[in-house]
Specification:
- Strand 4 and strand 5 form a beta hairpin.
- The protein is elongated, with a radius of gyration of 24 Å.
- Helix content is about 35%, strand content about 20%.
- The strands form 4 sheets. It has a 6-stranded mixed beta sheet with strand order 1-2-6-3-7-15. The chain has a 4-stranded antiparallel beta sheet with strand order 10-11-9-12, covered by helices on one side.
- The chain is of the alpha/beta class.
- The longest helix is centred in the middle third of the chain and has 22 residues.
- Bound molecules: zinc ion.
- The site of zinc ion has 6 residues, from helix 4.
Length: about 425
């Protein structure tokens, strides 16, 4: 058996139990974010597995922020091959969202039953990390020397924006356009789907400012809740229907997410939530909005649309006054359609699964934004085991079969991009 591909695939098959066991051990560390628990232990666990597979391992500890007190951030990077080019980087985030209610299995038990690996983070995305680690490891075990460098990293905080994780590695120059050629993020898009980017997001807050007065004489004040509701109505009546008519050419899934959208994420006004209430006219009411925008829309224009709508709503009643604050803007990203990464993954998917690959794009953002935006690396995709719809759900699971298949696909992709040197 001298065909390098067959040798690598055989090594993945031989390691199948180890791969599942490693993913289960990752799940048993409850790396819940917020607050960012057990990060150091999880980075160490990934690091020791990478060391065992022959990687040189480095740790990266971003400067702690006040809100990280008691929960230090630690990223891990394993390097195989030193200075050879191209550099192929596989990256997974090891933070998970809180388990929430409704579980029938132990969320951090790492249970394997009926061909499924269960637990918070199984799909999103500890199976993906195991696939990345062992894909690269299988090439090493097959005794194939690549003409490339393979890097595997485990990073923090993706679920809260990724600034201390991939964002930090990118700002530190560890992931950079002049040293990183290809970047694969094994997020759970499924074993036949390649994710080539995501929509943009503009998060903003609108505060309606009123004037307080006695609640029994509201005509003496100006009620901020009323004023905010006028803006909410304008969004619902004038903006949302227009957004729904804008559709992107990007293959966003599910199909309904191909349109631009706006959501009210939160609202708070007057004395809401305060324990002792007094009869007052609400003098402040705030809402947080989540506007998802398309590659075809301009970020500045997206914001201007809100500014204009606020101005029109204000003009309709002299008592209304609004303040707009920008919370976060992430531009849409898209992998170049002719990227060698896409072709290599498509061929590997066909080889392993005998099925055609499908390109998709994500409705929400993930770490691709930092790879493209901060590091400036164009050749980035997401490809990994697990079903997207399982992410953040109770009884989250990943099919063992998908985990092994995705490991094989990643291994063949690295092999093709890296070129076997012997
Ligand atoms: Zn994820």
């Amino acid at each position: 058996m001298t065909d390098p591909r067959s040798r690598v695939l055989a090594c993945v098959d031989d390691a199948a139990d180890e791969i599942v066991d490693f993913a289960a051990r990752l799940i048993r560390l409850p790396t819940v974010n917020p607050p960012g628990a057990h990060y150091a232990e999880c980075a160490d666990l990934i690091g020791s597995q990478l060391t065992e597979l022959g990687f040189a391992v480095e740790f990266d500890e971003p400067e702690p922020l006040a809100e990280h007190a008691g929960h230090p951030r630690r990223n891990v990077v394993g390097v195989l091959g030193g200075a050879r080019r191209p550099v192929i980087h596989l990256n997974g985030h090891f933070d998970v969202v809180p388990p929430g209610a409704g579980w029938t299995v132990e969320p951090f038990g790492g249970l394997v039953r009926d061909g499924r690996l269960y637990g918070r983070g199984s799909a999103d995305m500890k199976a993906g990390i195991a696939a990345a680690v062992f894909a690269a490891g299988a090439i090493r075990r097959a005794d194939l020397r690549l003409a490339a460098t393979v890097e595997v990293s485990g990073t923090v905080d993706e679920e809260s924006g990724g600034l201390a994780g991939v964002g930090h590695l990118a700002r530190a120059g560890r992931i950079a356009a002049d040293r990183t050629d290809y970047f694969i993020i094994p997020e759970p898009f499924g074993p036949t789907r390649i994710c080539v980017g995501h929509r943009g997001v503009y998060w903003f807050k609108v505060a309606a400012l009123g004037r307080t007065a006695h609640g029994s004489m509201p005509f003496l004040g100006a009620n901020a809740v009323d004023h905010l509701s006028a803006f909410l109505e304008a969004v619902r009546r004038d903006l949302a229907p227009v957004l729904a008519t804008r559709r992107t050419a990007m293959p966003v899934v599910p199909d309904a997410a191909r349109a631009a959208s706006i959501n009210v994420n939160a609202i708070v006004g007057g004395q809401a939530g305060e324990s002792s209430q007094t009869p007052c006219v609400a003098d402040r009411c705030e809402a947080i909005f989540d506007r998802r925008f398309l590659e075809e829309e301009d970020a500045a224009q997206v914001r201007q649309e809100i500014v204009d709508l606020l101005a029109r709503t204000e003009a309709a009643d002299r008592a209304r006054r609004y303040e707009l604050s920008d919370l976060m803007t992430v531009r849409p990203v898209r992998t170049p359609p002719d990227s060698p990464l896409i072709g290599a993954l498509e061929r590997s998917i066909d080889h392993v699964l005998g099925q055609p690959a499908h390109q998709v794009a994500s409705p929400g953002t993930y770490d691709h934004k930092h790879v493209a935006g901060i590091a400036g690396v164009p050749h980035c995709v997401a490809y990994g085991p697990g079903i997207l719809e399982q992410a953040h759900q109770p009884d989250e699971w990943c099919a063992v079969e998908d985990l092994i298949a995705a490991t094989k696909v990643l291994a063949l992709t690295v092999l093709e991009l890296g070129g076997s040197a012997r």
